[in-house]
Structure formats: structure tokens, C-alpha cells
């Protein structure tokens, strides 16, 4: 008995007493064509992490379709957007400033900024988007370009 490593002897009891923890691992392949894949005329959002995942933010792999212009105003959310494919621009509505977007560009709407997001003609943009508070499921924009608050979604 004394020759057994202590971990082998007590190992089983230790595992039974502990709440099992599980890292969240998903692949985009498992999201496509499910409820977490929201496809509209102008964009398609593959929602990798949602409110139910308990992270405090949601994480989306989003396509902005060629030549589309989106008028957005996330009144209830903060959003950071990281472009990984395609080219376009973001226009700040409060001052008319236009910033070009290409792979590697990130923008963060830290003041719930009203803006226009445009994908260049002939260019689909692929963006990684993070929302706080997290999107809960199949939110689409209302007439102002906002998503509803989580409790109303
Ligand atoms: C960049 C952006 O806001 N695109 C609209 C779709 C949205 N981000 C989403 O993925 O839900």
C-alpha cells in the first residue's frame, strides 16, 4: 500500500467530490445553419459564443455582404469589430469622419456611436465581433440599427 503514489489512492474520491468543469470548445462548422447562424440580406452572423455561454460577452464571426451599407446604433451594447477579410469603411455619424477598414483593422464603439458600416463594392468583409452585454440568440437590428436589451431579446 505504501508503495502506491498518493494520487492513485485518493484520486477517485477527489474527482467525485469536484464539480466537473468543462472548457467551451466549438468550431464554426458546428454553428453554420443552426439557430446561432443569422443570415440577413446585408450580413450573416455566425454566433460562436452567446449569453448562455456565461462569458459576459458574445463573439461573432460576421460577414458583411459585398457593397452593403449598414446604418447601426448599438444603444444598448458596446461592440468591438476586427476585420480579418475584405475591405470597406466606417463613417461616424456625429462628425462625418470616415475610416477605411482592411484586414487587421479593429474599431470599438465605445460611446454607442451611431455609424455607417460599408463593405466595398465587390468585397465581402469578414469581421470578428464582440458584444457586451452578450447577444442572446437571433437578434437583428431594429429601425434604429440597435439590438434589443438582453432582457427584451
Ligand atoms: C459589424 C456589425 O455590427 N455587423 C452587423 C452584424 C452584427 N455585428 C452581428 O454579428 O450580430
From TrEMBL:
A single GO BP: ectoine biosynthetic process
Keywords assigned: Lyase
Pfam families: Ectoine_synth
EC number of this enzyme: 4.2.1.108
The family this protein is said to belong to: Belongs to the ectoine synthase family.
Function: Catalyzes the circularization of gamma-N-acetyl-alpha,gamma-diaminobutyric acid (ADABA) to ectoine (1,4,5,6-tetrahydro-2-methyl-4-pyrimidine carboxylic acid), which is an excellent osmoprotectant.
Name of the featured protein: L-ectoine synthase
Organism: Sulfurirhabdus autotrophica
Lineage per the UniProt record: Bacteria, Pseudomonadati, Pseudomonadota, Betaproteobacteria, Nitrosomonadales
